[in-house]
Amino acid sequence: MKIMGMDIGDKRIGIALTDPEKKLSIPHTILRNDKEFSGKLSKMLDEENIEKIIVGMPYTLKGEIGPQGNKVLEFVEKNILNMGIEIVYQDERFTSKLEEEPGIKKRKKSGHKDKFSAALILQGYLDRISSIKRIENE
Known about the structure:
By secondary structure, this protein is an alpha/beta fold. The protein has helices at about 35-45, 65-80, 95-100, 115-135, and strands at about 1-10, 10-20, 25-30, 50-55, 85-90. The chain has a single domain, classed as Nucleotidyltransferase, domain 5. The chain has a 5-stranded mixed beta sheet, sandwiched between helices.
């Protein structure tokens, strides 16, 4: 089974997937934020054998859920919650800035930035879980 990462935007949703060992995050695709999203997502969940979705949560700098965070929560409730899959929210405050760091190829114009942002969100989750497991085993 794999884990999916998701960067939810007003127009596009970036999707990333883990490798089968759940150690690496790989940019996968971009889906339009439209009426067909839920059907496409449901199909992808089955085809890719997804066990969990990590959703980027745009917390404010104070660590609170602001207007954009509320949009994400509403989107998840409307389009994903009824699919019966585990959803985990991952702090995404700095992923867009990481994507724009010098040395990282610019993808903004083509829209591909969304799937790379999803990969950063998912990798952040994987790294956090890996750190927790390491601490527990010490």
